[in-house]
Automatic annotation (TrEMBL):
SUPFAM superfamilies linked to this entry: Ribokinase-like, YjeF N-terminal domain-like
Keyword Lyase set for record: yes
Gene name, Swiss-Prot/TrEMBL: nnrD
YjeF C-terminal domain residues: 223-492
Protein name stated in the entry: Bifunctional NAD(P)H-hydrate repair enzyme
Residues holding K(+): N65, D127, S163
Subunit-structure text: Homotetramer.
Keyword Ribonucleoprotein: no
Species annotation: Dyella halodurans
Domain YjeF N-terminal as annotated: residue spans: 16-217
Needed co-factor(s): Mg(2+); K(+)
Similarity remark: In the C-terminal section; belongs to the NnrD/CARKD family.
Binding site for (6S)-NADPHX: 64-68, 131-137, 160, 258, 319, 366, 433
Lineage top rank: taxon: Bacteria
Keywords assigned: ATP-binding, Isomerase, Lyase, Metal-binding, Multifunctional enzyme, NAD, NADP, Nucleotide-binding, Potassium
Amino acid sequence: MTASDHRHELYTVDQVRALDRRAIDALGIPGYELMQRAAAAALVCLRQHWPRARRIAVYCGPGNNGGDGFLLAALAHEAGLHADVIALGESQGDDAVRARREFELGGGTVHPWQGSGELPLADVQVDGLFGTGLRRALAPDVAQLVRQMQARGAPILALDVPSGVNADTGEVPGESVQADVTVTFIAAKRGLYTAQAPGYAGQLQLEPLGLPESLWHGCRADAELLRVQTLAPRPRQVHKGNNGHVLAIGGDHGTAGAIRLCGEAALRGGAGLVSVATRSEHLVALNSARPELMAHEVNGPQALAPLLERATVLALGPGLGQGAWGHALWLTALESGLPLVLDADGLNLLAREPRQLTGRAVLTPHPGEAARLLGCDTAKIGADRFAAARELARRYGAIVVLKGAGSLVAEPEGRVAVCPWGNPGMASGGMGDLLTGIIAALLAQGCEAWQAACLGVGLHARAGDLAARKGGERGLLASDLLEPLRLLLNGKGA
């Protein structure tokens, strides 16, 4: 095993610092050598992405991130590129001071940033202002510099972390560099893959700096990235009864679309049978649009009971409402003890009447629903999505999918996986109903709750990316994901 085998592992800032310290103390690699390796890797990255670049502008902060920038500028100068360096004050720390001196001894000139002024012309700009340690908003003078960098229009390569992004949580508390590419060193920082960070990090590239596998011994990652997965091919002799029976419950007055999307996603997700328990007014529309769905009028718990007896998995919540009808069905469904996926108003009712869930259960809240479930505001959810997902899973005894950019999957014991796929076009109505149906179908086919949630989230996001590549992000509909979903579930498509 090599360092590259750890590319799917995500670490906290403190864990990365510990790895850095172990490389220095236990492996005997000087900190300055690590800085040299980072600068060399960054220059390779820059030339890979912008091979025609001849002028670069490197913006260096006072710490080691700035030291990486100074050494990158020195290497670029040696390679025949024109490198301008703009610095925020004096360098601090032995390695950063040494890196600055090396750049100057090589003939480079450092231009101090005075809070205003013209920035140099450049084909590529390099952000070496602040590294992983920044947790606060950028100071006003630095924020002004960042705004001017963005206004220049030249692409930006961020070293380790885009300045202004919290590398632990993905939060962006103020102004931030919006990078085209971020080259991150030693280990992947968990915050770069979720919350606001994906909109600022651009394309992420991990450089382990040639460190040996022994560096990672005994250091357990905080989280992991989802990998491309699908289900094994079905045996030739399979029949519909082998693939489970999903019962989708919801669709109060005026919300037939939500429960239809959920049911149709369960069909496309491979469930053998899908029934829908809904209002009578929706039956004609459902039967006409998707006759494979077995739609039933359910006016209360008594009508729901025989459907529960035939079901193997429940998809509970899309269009359910929080009135008397929805509440009665919700209670009856939970008391059945069947494996279930709980979404939308199913989650809002759970927030009103908290309970531990028994059996295989998956909750799929967006940040607003998560805030109601935890009794806080959405700002607190966004401030640390990892902590929120873990607390939800622990409190309710279920697998939790915290939706959003970089969706998180968490289990009660603390394990967390992060989805690296998806696109802004998926921020539209019905996407959550689709995810509910997909995960329910995977449960029905025998997946454990953790596997169903991880696989379902990955398939859903990848189907969104495939659909967006075909027609673009803007105007993407939830139903556009159904055909790509089928392809991906069968090992086809991208």
